[in-house]
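In this supplementary section we document a worked example of the pipeline. Step one takes a protein sequence of length 433 as its only input; no multiple sequence alignment statistics are reported here. Step two produces a three-dimensional model, which step three serialises into structure tokens for compact storage. The input and output of this example are shown verbatim.
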Amino acid sequence: RKELDRAMVAHTDTAVGNGVDAVVEKVCNDELPVHSLERELGDCARAVLVRREWLKRQPGVASAEAVGRVPHEGFDYDAVHGACAEMVFGYIPLPVGVAGPLLLNGKTYQVPLATVEGALIASTRRGCKAITAAGGASAAVLSQGMTRAPVIRFPSAIRAAAFAAWMHDPANLAVAQEQFATTTRFGRLTSCRVTVAGRYAYARFVCATGDAMGMNMVSKGVSAVLDFLSAGSFGDLELLGLSGNVCCDKKAAAVNWISGRGCSVVAEATIPGHVVESVLKTTVAAACELNVAKNLIGSAMAGALGGFNAHASNIVTALYLACGQDAAQNVESSQCITLLEPANGGADLHVSVTMPSIEVGTVGGGTILAPQRACLEMLGVAGAGQEAGSHARELATVVAGAVLAGELSLLAALSAGHLMRAHLAHNRKPAAP
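The serialised model returned by step three reads:
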């Protein structure tokens, strides 16, 4: 292994060669800003080579040789620049597996999942098998809308209350919608609810954003609305921050659990008893009993906020990484309540997941990267749909369907006492000699 590491570093050093060393010296001497090498050199791949050599010489890097082992070749850095990441010096490969076939809303999907957790994909695939053998699952989008809630301060609580009353008037909302519409061809302001705390007003704008996840689109539109209001009836408003945490982005919050954010989705399936026993290796009664004790009572005892599930976060994160979504939005996107109930007199198993805040997009962000776009193409949802927002909605249903499969399989394994056996089989192997 050490010989291989040395060979990789040597290859990197050779690749640098020819004029790059001189650039590295300029960067190290602060004659060239390291953060803007792409612009200064006009070559994103060359900028990465320079930055790698610069990084090897920096304090805080315990092993210069380790920098050389981070892969960097064969990547489209032009796509990343100005869109996905800064100070880039390489990339991190992740294994991508597939869970399926998943029959959902009459369509078959093979779901790509990027993860380093052994047994996760195998377990989710087993859940897909059970669902498909049962005739498939159904999913519906209950609502769709991205939110942004700026924090605004007024001279008095009375003025903050007046602002809330103004925004809640449908006629005034129409005025705000006109201002929002001046900033985008694809976005639309649909509603706004203001929460007041003393002199502070938190206006939670809800917006349709087409097939984009839409945070930037919404922020731009909300800024235009506030500029209009501050130049008119509310010249005394003071914008403290475009996000005031009532949005609520990348944090577990009751407002998302109750009101939703992104796509609110429900998915369900009825699994015949013989499939429960032959595929999932458990019984209807045992699975239902565990779900109540673990996901409902156990989660309540833990004070969970939207965490009434077994491991929705596992599937959401793995699918997000594979499909170019914002992985940090896993926090609210994996809010989920899983329900298992006996059906048909206890002979069969009804399972459902309700997920109020699945935040996904099929255009923009990480979806512009070729591998991530390829995973979206696998699912048939890459890019904009024929109807605005249709691809994002379909992707959200796939997320819920995959979570349904993952929940079903894990709860079955736990109720049958097979969880540790599965992890030992899929997540452990002897150390290399």
